[in-house]
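Look over this one:
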Amino acid sequence: LPDGLLLAFRALANNTTTAPTFSPDGLPAAVLVHYGTSLAANNIRAGGEYTVRYQKVGNVWVLLDISV
């Protein structure tokens, strides 16, 4: 994956862990973070639309918008 790749998704369910993963189109799953920090439960909400950016360093998806 190219570093900085932007994708968007609509969540099917709330996240229940601090290390949810994202695997678009069957690619290997990588952890979702929020600018280097773990997510809290329910930061991702069912039906919410989110934008993520792939970060090669750490092999993570950075959640650019977050529900609080």
The CA atoms of residues 13 and 46 lie 4 Å apart.
